[in-house]
Amino acid sequence: MNRHHGVYLVLLVAAILSLSFGTPIVWRGFCAAEQPAFPRPLAPLALRQNAEQGAAGNSAHYVGSVACRNCHAQIYDHWKKTPMANVVRDPHQHPEAIIPDLDTNNVRPKFARDQIAFVYGRIWKQRYFTKIGDDYFPEPAQWDITNKKWRPYVVANGTDWWATLYPPDNMKRPTGATCDGCHSVDYNIQTRQVAEWNVGCERCHGPGSDHVSHPTRVSILNPARMDYVHASDTCIQCHSQGRPLNNPIEGKYYDWPVGFHMGLNLRDHWQLEEHTLGQQSFTHFPDGTAHKNRMQGNDFVQSVMYRRGVTCFDCHDVHGTENYAQLRKPVDQLCLTCHGPGSKNGPRTATLEEHTHHKNGSAGSACVACHMPKIEVTVGNVNVRAHTFAFITPAMTDKYKIPNPCTSCHAEKTTAWASDVMRHWPERSPWRVD
């Protein structure tokens, strides 16, 4: 039997199994080198199984991520080291969580270690929450991890939609309304208690008691088996700027989708921040690209990637990897899984150098340098990458005042210079330069 006959036999057997069990088989796409082009191989559930899963989800309760470790030890151990598992930490249990020397804090009023109930963040910035009653409140200083310096922390008017709705004193701005719903599992707005702090397993998979008792695939939610909208909403629920459809809720203005949990429709609980094309707001550049952090979802839903059914976790694995940002592969290898010279997905050139016009291996040849520029502010002068995947031309900088990757890197050059250079690139459409 030759290799092709073998493939046909496998397909035939799979089709028979699919008809027998009512479960459609979803096959990975393969490129010429027979490498998986789409890292989401799981079959969606059949209609009957979806109904069973919904019924199970309605009866289940939260049990905590530790309960998952018994059967998923390797995944649990990887996840435990990720930023998701360590969004907030108690410095009394983890004294190493506090990065700077608190004695060097030059922002007034100062605070001491014993006043810190929670430490938030460990990548770009670190903030400190104190506890009063059942609520947490942010201290007035934050640590800029990149620049190793203290900065004041207060959400000023005009920098978030809810700022004018709370007093300008941090000690009158409880984090339960503005932060805690996304930094925990099942935050209860009445009791201000959580099932678990941090982004635990059940934040993405739903309550797990039924699955612990009866570990089948219909007793737990799995975003990898969902359609691309619900799959990405797993992440968009917190990685987006928006507001609840009904606000205030019980007298408070919430900055996270109160009432949403996996298995529901995010659109019934959350509205992404609106934007008027041509206008700059506290959230968006005039062209619609985000210019502040935690807006990956706002960017992504505008992208061609999203419209073609790509999900957040086709690129990221929140269970943990050895790559930056929990990417499934090193960044340029990841992009080349679906893109590459001669690919229908682009670039349509014989080599990457012909596409990027930069030497292979240089900073300018990296896919993310041009398609995911660091233009979205997280703290001070520290920016994170855009997620529209669109190339921002120098002409757009002139028109919309949005930074472009060309003159952001070649800072000594003008946008006119950059536009002129691109006009001489033979494979570049002149209609996409201006």
Number of strands: 12
Our count of domains comes out at 3
Q: Please state roughly what percent of the residues sit in beta strands, choosing from under 5%, 5-15%, 15-25%, 25-35%, 35-45% or over 45%.
A: 5-15%
Classify the helix fraction into a percent range.
Answer: 25-40%
Specify the structural class.
Answer: alpha+beta
What is the element string, with H for helices and E for strands? HHHHEEEEEEHEEHHHEEHHHHHHEEHHH
User: In terms of per-residue confidence, which ranges show pLDDT below 50 for 5 or more consecutive residues?
Assistant: 1-38
Distance between the termini: 56 Å
Radius of gyration: 24 Å
Number of helices: 17
Shape: globular
Biggest sheet layout: 6 strands, antiparallel
Average pLDDT over all residues: 89
Task: Give a quick rundown of the structure.
The chain is of the alpha+beta class and 434 residues long. The protein folds into three domains: 1-44, no CATH class; 45-274, no CATH class; 300-432, no CATH class.
Question: Would you give an account of this structure?
Answer:
There is one protein chain. This protein has 17 helices and 12 strands. By secondary structure, it is of the alpha+beta class. The chain has 3 domains: 1-44, no CATH class; 45-274, no CATH class; 300-432, no CATH class. The strands form 4 sheets. Strands 1, 2, 3, 4, 5 and 6 form a 6-stranded antiparallel beta sheet that branches. A hairpin with a 2-residue loop joins strand 3 and strand 4. It starts with a helix and ends in an 11-residue tail after the last helix. Residues 1-38 have low confidence and may be disordered.
